[in-house]
Each structure stands twice: as structure tokens, then as C-alpha cells.
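S1.2 Input.
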Amino acid sequence: MEEDEQKLLVRLVGRNGRRRYEPASKDRLVSACLEPGVSVSRLALEHGVNANLLRKWIKKRTETQSLP
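S1.3 Output.
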């Protein structure tokens, strides 16, 4: 990924501190995680996202793709 595209863009931070991310940024990050040989934990650290949250995004995407 290029340096500009590497950042996960935050769309909104709520009063409780929860972040809402740009869907396009999330999609690029999940796509990068699905490449062979990529460490999900490493990418999560690089982007400042919890690894479990990133795994949840990956699971959600693979489940929606497997539906007929």
C-alpha cells in the first residue's frame, strides 16, 4: 500500500470514544489482510486498530461473500 492509503481514516469519534471508520478505508485494510502471508496482527498494529476488531471485519466480509 502507498503511504497515503495506509492510514485508516476515522469518520467520526463519538462521545464515548468509539470510532467510526470510513468504509473504503476498512475495505482496503481487509483486502490487504486477505493477501497470502500477511499478518493480521501486524497490520492492526500499523493502523492503530485492535486485532480482534480487524478479525471481526474480515469474518463479516468473508461471510457476506460466501452468501449466494
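S1.4 Remarks. The beta strands are 10-13, 19-21.
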